[in-house]
């Protein structure tokens, strides 16, 4: 069901709700329709992922390979652009944004990434087009949340080191777009985030925009790998690592497993305290990604055996808010907006 935020409810602003790729639990990701629905559902921020085009523009896609999230495979005029690349150390085959102009990319239709879990969304395959970063910024600027507040943008830069290696620097078009949208200062409703550290440090040197360092439970930032820096994500989310991040960023975007890990059966263990450690050095703690389908939920919040069925997302979100998150990044902003924060004692029920 496509549902706006309930008019009779009172907005809960003890947390920020970030619409992950728009309201992509309902409509194909990174489309204006998905972002418009997210705004109607009460999202505070929209979260576009940004990759580069052949003509040096920013297009909104989760990764630069677009074969699984657009209808490019059915476009005969682009058949000869299928190729194989090594992106962030992994071999990928398909169609890549850096081989298309922005005009060509925005002629493509978006398709559902998870049709087996979200057939209601795949019914809209090809209906909505791929969009530019400027289109998302414009939508946010002319929109208001149901409570009248501004709509922010949490923009994620993808594959910065890879793109730099092929002569496409993400930074100039990003700064140009933010300047054109008058979003250049710390108080403006925009945050730029990345898993890579170097691009964030570069932005910090030339812009006052707020920055977010994304952190995974495993692996290492690709820019550090390429530079021969042996620090892992685990080093970055240590107390010393968080203190270093606070020198250039304002937010840490935490993999949920860093906040409350799961056991081998998928049940939640106890909170790690990483949110407290982040707060202690002045960082806000955002958590990703909250989705309603059983496939993604901790075992205690699943309902039935169908992986595509909706479980208790509200219960999961309440638990993570009680563990100290300031924001939830979710595919279902309507379900996150009105979740009451659980009493801290609720965490006592989480398995040890």
TrEMBL record:
It catalyses: a sn-glycero-3-phosphodiester + H2O = an alcohol + sn-glycerol 3-phosphate + H(+). This is glycerophosphodiester phosphodiesterase. Pfam families: GDPD. It is an enzyme of class 3 (hydrolase). GO terms for cellular component: periplasmic space. Transmembrane segments: none annotated. Belongs to the glycerophosphoryl diester phosphodiesterase family. GO terms for biological process: glycerol metabolic process; lipid metabolic process. Keywords: Glycerol metabolism, Hydrolase, Signal. PROSITE patterns: GP_PDE. GO terms for molecular function: glycerophosphodiester phosphodiesterase activity. Gene3D superfamilies: Phosphatidylinositol (PI) phosphodiesterase (3.20.20.190). Residues 15-340 form the GP-PDE domain. Its EC number is 3.1.4.46.
